[in-house]
Automatic annotation (TrEMBL):
This is Cyclic peptide export ABC transporter. Residues 359-588 form the ABC transporter domain. It is a multi-pass membrane protein. InterPro entries: AAA+_ATPase (IPR003593), ABC1_TM_dom (IPR011527), ABC1_TM_sf (IPR036640), ABC_transporter-like_ATP-bd (IPR003439), ABC_transpr_CbiO/EcfA_su (IPR015856), Cyc_pep_transpt_SyrD/YojI (IPR005898), P-loop_NTPase (IPR027417), Type_1_exporter (IPR039421).
Length: 591
């Protein structure tokens, strides 16, 4: 393929960048993230201040906040000590409530918006991606990214305010500790640093386990897809069913369970260690530390109270870490998947609107990506012309490359060499989208939406009714407000409905891959004798993959494929117009 069209090829996989949850959030909504953090910090700081307030209430004459001390009073019939201090405490709690709720609500909303944004970017990326790239990434990975990963990111993001509030609380409590007794503060700080460092080691292991579990999850999803889609076949054969479970599902499930168990066990052990650490610190202070440093009884009470209080934020920080860790793994997966998809915003493009009468394949070829051990199937080099107002049949044995050729013609597979030309103009990245707009298909692996997509007008509806009638499904399916009354149809009926959908769009090229294969003789006749000639009469280019030699005579051109090459081209009278030597073609493939 020429250099211009070479740009249609899929780009190499981008390297995975390190992605942080907070940096991602910061980039997404910097102002709101700032306010959420500010509110979280304020609430954490105020939480910590509750301790001196309570201590002051217990020990009124100890200075500090004791100026708020007052007489016993009554409120709503309740006897209240130190009225002003109590009122201040209530107000204080209200501010904590507001700041904490504001931080959590803001963070939750940002996380939902970011997740929705990621989901939309993934969906847009999927629809704008080249088809070979999607085949490379695989359905299972895309499904997990759009569903599970995005859900985990929400879970992790919601844990961030917890982490923030409790971290600030922890810092403030340490500050208060310093205010009470500097020696105790230094000792506790050393314990915290030691605790964080020693806690970080198992967390590194846990994150690795989560990463491995995430990869296994893709494989498991693929297996479950196979199970759901192949349930009919598996139900009919116990041996196959057992093998599917024994060799595919169960090993993956076992491995995933093992890795997840390790991750959870590591985290649980680390959590228990984290919880216990502070009780040990309390014990050391109460039983040993006081023997070496001067600590008054009042200070000791305050210190123990702070240390007991400190265990709660530490436990909450520890609990939020696995969720955040999983969210980071998922975020990296989503970002790496996004990196493999085109990040193209729907901006105004110059429209090509190129009218055409012929499509030429000039030495065009395509290679499928192969398995681990072999090269993928090679189709080409192909040289032929499709004309408007003509019907072209593509025939050939199974696996000869007919569907691949169709996907090259529909511009889903960009040629790896040679050109596809519309009226002599090579298809380039600028115009591929415009050329595609004029192609209607029913692929052998078609998908039937439950509605007519795109603008609907009366003319279209009349055409739809005409084809529903012609294909005898008008008694089964009606179109109400653009939506089909049902798509629960037999395979043949569904395919007929897919044909109706393709026909009512006024496209220039109609590509029908083995449409007639599972139709009754009656509908085959309607298809070949009425519908196809009608399309030709409307000046459409019609390409049909067919095995129905009874109807070959209606074709203007027949391309015969074998092993990825067109080995013969005939006109409808059966006289070969061009015979390509298989040996020559084979030699070209091996180049
Ligand atoms: N997505 C794919 N990835 C890798 N190889 C593929 C892919 N699709 C098809 N192939 C390979 O390309 C070859 C041609 O397949 P293709 O579907 O084009 O043949 P076909 O002539 O349409 O066959 P059939 O008549 O059975 O539908 C096959 O050998 C197949 O293994």
């Amino acid at each position: 393929m020429s250099q211009r069209t070479g740009s249609l090829k899929t780009s190499p996989k981008p390297p995975t960048r390190r992605v942080g949850l907070m940096s991602e959030f910061g980039r997404f909504a910097p102002n709101r993230v700032f306010f959420a953090m500010l509110a979280g910090m304020l609430s954490g700081g105020l939480y910590a201040l509750a301790i001196p307030l309570i201590l002051d209430a217990i020990n009124p004459p100890s200075g500090g906040l004791s100026y708020l001390d007052g007489n016993v009073g009554y409120f709503l019939g309740f006897k209240i000590n130190q009225g002003p201090l109590a009122a201040f405490f209530a107000l204080f709690c209200l501010v904590i409530l507001i700041t904490r709720a504001a931080s959590a609500i803001l963070a939750a909303r940002i996380s939902l918006e970011l997740s929705s944004n990621l989901r939309q970017r993934l969906c847009k990326g999927i629809v704008q991606s080249s088809y070979p790239r999607l085949e490379e990434i695989g359905q299972a990975r895309l499904m997990v990214a759009v569903t599970d990963d995005v859900r985990r990111i929400i879970g992790g993001a919601e844990a961030v305010p917890q982490l923030m509030i409790n971290t600030v609380m922890l810092i403030s409590l340490l500050g208060f500790l310093w205010y009470i007794n500097a020696h105790v503060f230094i000792f506790v700080l050393e314990a915290v640093v030691f605790g964080v460092l020693t806690f970080h080691v198992p967390m590194l292991f846990a994150t690795n386990y989560f990463r491995r579990a995430r990869d296994l999850y893709d494989t498991l999803q693929k297996g479950v897809n196979g199970l759901i889609l192949g349930v009919k076949e598996l139900q009919l054969d116990q041996q196959k069913r057992n093998e599917y479970f024994d060799k595919i599902l169960s090993p993956c499930e076992r491995e995933l369970l093992k890795v997840e168990k390790r991750a959870i066990s590591t985290i649980s052990a680390a959590n228990s260690y984290g919880d216990l650490l502070f009780f040990m610190v309390i014990g050391v202070i109460a039983f040993i530390f006081v023997n070496y440093h001067q600590v008054s009884a009042t200070d000791l009470t305050a210190v123990v109270m702070v240390l007991l209080y400190i265990t709660a934020p530490i436990a909450l920080i520890i609990n939020s870490l696995p969720k955040i860790s999983m969210a980071i793994v998922s975020l990296r997966k989503v970002k790496s998947t996004l990196g493999e998809l085109p990040e193209r915003i729907d901006v105004e493009r110059p429209t090509c609107h190129r009218a055409w009468d012929t499509i030429n394949f000039v030495g065009a070829s395509y290679r499928h990506s192969g398995g681990k051990t072999q090269d993928g199937f090679f189709v080409g080099p192909l040289d032929f012309t499709i004309r408007k107002g003509e019907i072209t049949f593509i025939v050939g044995g199974n696996g000869s490359g007919k569907s691949t050729l169709c996907k090259m013609l529909s511009l889903h597979y960009p040629p790896s060499a040679g050109d596809v030309r519309f009226d002599g103009k090579i298809v380039d990245t600028e115009c591929i989208e415009d050329y595609r707009q004029n192609i209607a298909t029913v692929f052998s692996d078609y998908f039937l939406f439950d509605r007519l997509l795109g603008p609907i007008n009366d003319e279209k509806l009349v055409l739809a009714r005409h084809y529903l009638q012609a294909l005898a499904i008008d008694h089964k399916v009606q179109i109400e407000g653009g939506i089909f009354s049902t798509t629960d149809l037999s395979d043949g009926q569904r395919k007929r409905l897919a044909l109706v959908v393709a026909f009512i769009d006024d496209k220039e090229l109609y590509l029908l891959d083995e449409w007639a294969a599972d139709q009754d003789p009656e509908f085959k006749r309607v298809f070949y004798m009425n519908i196809l000639p009608e399309l030709r009469a409307r000046g459409k280019a019609v390409v049909v993959v067919s095995h129905d030699d009874r109807y070959f005579h209606i074709a203007d051109q027949i391309l015969i494929m074998e092993d990825g090459k067109i080995v013969e081209r005939r006109y409808s009278d059966g006289a070969p117009v061009e015979r390509l030597m298989v040996a020559v073609a084979t030699a070209t493939v091996s180049e």
